[in-house]
Amino acid sequence: MKKIVIIGGGIGGLSTAYYLRSLKNKSKENIKITVVSKRRNFEFTPAFPHLAIGWRKLYQISVDLESTLKKFDINYIPQDATIIIPEKNKIILEDGKEEEYDYLVIATGPRLMMEVEGQKEYANSICTSSHALKTFQNFQSFLENPGPVVVGAIPGTSCFGPAYEFILMLSRELKKRKINIPLYFITPEPFIGHFGLGGVAESNKILSQELEENNIKYFTNKKITKVEANKVIFEDLEGSKEEIESKFVMLMPRFNGPEVVETAGDKVANPVNKMVMVNKAFQNEEYKNIYAVGVVVSIPPIEKTPIPTGVPKTGMMIEHMALAVANNIINDINNDPTRYTPELSAICVADIGDTGIGFFLSSIQKPRKTELYMKNYFLHHFKTVFEKYFLWKIKTGKITPLFEEKTINLLFKAHPIYKIEK
User: Fold this and answer.
1) Residue-wise pLDDT tens digits, 268-292
2) Closest CA to 268 of 253, 252, 280, 279
3) 159 is catalytic
4) Which residues contact 381 (CB under 8 A, 6 or more apart)?
5) What whole-number percentage of the chain has pLDDT above 90?
6) d(CA 70, CA 76)
7) Which of 105, 123, 151, 159 is catalytic?
8) For residues 126 and 225, what is the distance between their CA atoms, to the nearest angstrom?
């Protein structure tokens, strides 16, 4: 019996568990899959901006983990892992108990680094469901006495999409309420629509136009340095400071690896960002039975920017990481040297109220075979439908049905994983 322990109950952790389950029959040995996560529910992260505006309720985007995993004979431990001891092939749970493994998959998600002075005290966040719900409460209070709004990202941010989506959704909501106030967007990106990806097709043109049509004044190549109760202070590349009055602020933080990754030591945790260091097979080089999936994977920037930006990890990318890792673990159990790497294709769709914006990349790395960016009314509805579809996948354990894989390949010529050539 091979014990495979997965730390994390989000998209990365569940995708890996489901793929491993689907490959069980190919394994020459029996496998036991265990998901370790204190979170009791799977939550559809892309809907957190909707939660913060009040366009969704938490129950609409949640699936109970324990009952769902039980249906698929996947063991579930509702605790956090606090320590990883790679030399002894075990983790320590928060109650002090040990859990041994033959293979470990780290899919924890990130630690949120709210490093700007005053960010924790005066800025809102939409990175977790609890943050989004608190932001919704603050938004309701704000509506009683509205004023200037600042949305943006701090230096080192890798997840820019939700910030764009949030300010455009907020703009639509304020228009519905006939509230006319100044809206500002501040980003470290060198240009609008950079996304930490060097841009995507016409993302700069389309997204800049969308911000302008919504009377949102934007600032690029800017470093937010301080948030106060009634203003946001930022500086340009020369260090010249500027400040904007604010009554409501939402900022995307920088992501680091969580503390549990640090406990595994500097051969697992990247010294710079504490994320998991992996090779092309998403396997740690030092400890070959440790893999990583999702936002916690250390991926270097696509390109150097004047103010640091990171690489986003979208849902499709994470699913493909999980597929590669599941295949690589089963092959290792079978003493098969074949290893796979994900293509790292990315689809991202933003619902902005009465229309939608989306992009597709055949790979985040350049050069790219396919690169699309579009604005379309259909995408507004697509995101709602996809949300329900993805929750169905989690409930049924069918993380990538064959028709989905074939459709993506037909439309975008995308392939989830490739064999690594020796």
Assistant:
1) 999 999 999 999 999 999 999 999 9
2) 279
3) yes
4) 356
5) 91
6) 8
7) 159
8) 20
HEC letters along the chain: CEEEEEECCCHHHHHHHHHHHHCHHHCCCCEEEEEECCCCEEECHHHHHHHHHCCCCHHHHEEEHHHHHHHCCCEEECCCEEEEEHHHCEEEECCCCEEECCEEEECCCCEEECCCECHHHHCECCCCHHHHHHHHHHHHHHHHCCCCEEEEECCCCCCCHHHHHHHHHHHHHHHHCCCCCCEEEECCCCCCCCCCCCCCCCHHHHHHHHHHHCCEEEECCCEEEEEECCEEEEECCCCCEEEEECCEEEEECEEECCHHHHCCCCCCECCCCCCECCCCCCECCCCCCEEECCCCECCCCCCCCCCCCCCCCCHHHHHHHHHHHHHHHHHHHCCCCCCEEECCCEEEEEECCCCEEEEEECCCCCCCCCEEEEEEHHHHHHHHHHHHHHHHHHHHCCCCCHHHHHHHHHHHCCCCEEECCC
Answer yes or no: are the C-beta atoms of 194 and 200 closer than 8 Å: no
**Which burial class, exposed, middle or buried, applies to 239 when counting CB atoms under 10 A from its CB (0-12, 13-18, 19+)?**
exposed
DSSP string spanning 176-245? HTT----EEEE-SSSSTT-TTTT--TTHHHHHHHHHHHTTEEEE-S-EEEEEETTEEEEE-TT--EEEEE
Least confident of 212-221, 248-257, 324-333, 352-361: 352-361
Rounded CA-CA distance 255/273 in Å is: 8
**Reported confidence tier of residue 28, pLDDT bands at 50, 70, 90:** very high
SS3 (DSSP) at 71: helix
Which position among 17, 168, 348, 408 bears the catalytic label? 348
Tell me if residue 127 is catalytic: no
- Of 48, 63, 38, 247, the closest CA to residue 133 belongs to 48
Give the pLDDT confidence score for residue 406 in this predicted structure.
Answer: 78
Separation between Cα atoms, residue 319 and residue 390, nearest integer Å: 12
> Over 90: is that where the pLDDT of 354 sits?
no
Is a pLDDT exceeding 90 seen at residue 310?
Answer: yes
Residue 415 has pLDDT above 90, yes or no: no
